[in-house]
């Protein structure tokens, strides 16, 4: 076993240890509960755009993108656009690494790798900021409900032109909406890639944290994920990700499509 393989085995052992530490997992949920009232996830940007995510989940997404090497990332929920810019920048890194490996030059504005962002309401100031960003040429915006048949059709048409696809769901967090999204987009995910369903942590938080929201304990992305998996044996929850992160908005939300 070479040193890198040995290190990898050590990491796997670390994650197994974390998965068995129920007290530490409980402490992590308490920490998430307490920082939520401070809107902690709102405090970070990526290349100038607010990205309303936990940094831990962004790091995990970077690892997935490097491993999967997608040429299309589909994201529902745009907000300020930081997550779109993050994904576009990661795809640009793939282009750069590919060009270096093949001793090629690249045009930074031209790439087969794209990000599709869907939102029911792309506010003008956010759209302007995304369009004016240096990575805008890699981003395709669709305004409309992610579960509208016309929107789904547009995304399916785009997806038909790509081979390695990653999906990130982060829009309306009700059970019904997320389950509809999973049924509409998960089948587009390429084998070995992921359909990441964010904000599954709602199920693990006190219900009083969501007084003015349509979602709640028992009605959220995690309940939708579990319902979806009952009829979709080609996906599995990659629990190794949530166990190594501990602090995550997506417990049970990292769904890996099982290779054929």
TrEMBL record:
Coiled coil: none annotated. Gene3D superfamilies: Vaccinia Virus protein VP39. Keywords: Methyltransferase, Transferase. SUPFAM superfamilies: S-adenosyl-L-methionine-dependent methyltransferases (SSF53335). InterPro entries: RNMT_CmcI, SAM-dependent_MTases_sf. GO terms for cellular component: plasma membrane. GO terms for molecular function: methyltransferase activity. One of its GO terms (biological process) is DIM/DIP cell wall layer assembly. Pfam families: RMNT_CmcI. The keyword Methyltransferase applies. This is Cephalosporin hydroxylase.
